[in-house]
Amino acid sequence: MNLKGKVALVTGSTSGIGLGIARALAAEGAHLMLNGLGDRAVIDKLVADLAHEFAVKTAYSAADMAKPAEIRAMILEAQKTLGGLDILVNNAGIQFVAPIEEFPAEKWDAIIAINLSAAFHAISAALPAMKQKRWGRIINIASAHGLVASPQKAAYVAAKHGIVGLTKVVAIEAANDGVTANAICPGWVLTPLVEKQLQDRAKAKGTTVDQEKKAMLAETQPMHQFSSPEEIGALAVFLCSEGAKTITGVPLSIDGGWVAH
Fold it and tell me: Do residues 133 and 208 share a domain?
């Protein structure tokens, strides 16, 4: 699965799933552009550490995923700074939970912009060069919520269902141009954000984090085990390999059986 010489851009990659994917791609030799939120000094160290650990070129864009012009500028920057763009991973996302009748309109707009529209703008900007080179991999990080719904997550579920649909259209349009497009649909992944949710649940209920882990998984997954960012990264690497060159337009679940029932 050697990706030496390929260039990858992973949005929302300064922590969590995005960072797991970025590390997995770099481990296979791909040059990296990171994007995401956080303290700039910490991010600069992360970028330097990845370059040193994996002997790849690295860069960072602070592009706001809610702003189409900044997204398109980020694509151009990756192409100019790193010499092209072969792999685009649309991972950036936000969440907000409330019943529909109480769901703030501004939260709906923000989630649709960052979780769905940002992927469209990035793909639109990156696809022409991939088609010209006749090689490209587009990986959209959807969710189990791209295939099934949960209450109080109207915007997130709508956006993730939209990502799955967008993936299928891109796959069809680029089917004979050497470009594949697929959606990874994780269930519960043990990221810093989820760990904080578990701590908050335990504090509110007077339970332990371990108890809340079991309860959270049992709510949705037959397999009572979290996926890890590293496992999501391994799947992304496989989708970039020659062994996956005819896998396209597919939502791939990595969810402990969530959508199997």
Answer: no
